[in-house]
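Q: My labmate handed me this sequence with no annotations at all. I'd like to see what the chain might look like in three dimensions before we decide whether it's worth expressing. Could you predict it?
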Amino acid sequence: TKEVAAATITHTDKYRAEYYRYYTRGNYWTNPVNYDLTLNNGRLGDDRSIEIIKSALRVKCPWAFAGGLEG
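A: Here is what I predict for the chain of 71 residues:
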């Protein structure tokens, strides 16, 4: 039912939030400052999202692409 689905989502979100807060020493998983990159894949699509991720990785981890790991 819709009620069961809503309760399951609420319970799961609470669990995830507590897990994240515990392992990050008090950070909140909904705070975008805690992430290097967030994308709306539904709006961008797979190909564009992949290109953005690869571009960000080239900046953050240039050594990963130095050995020809382009793909």
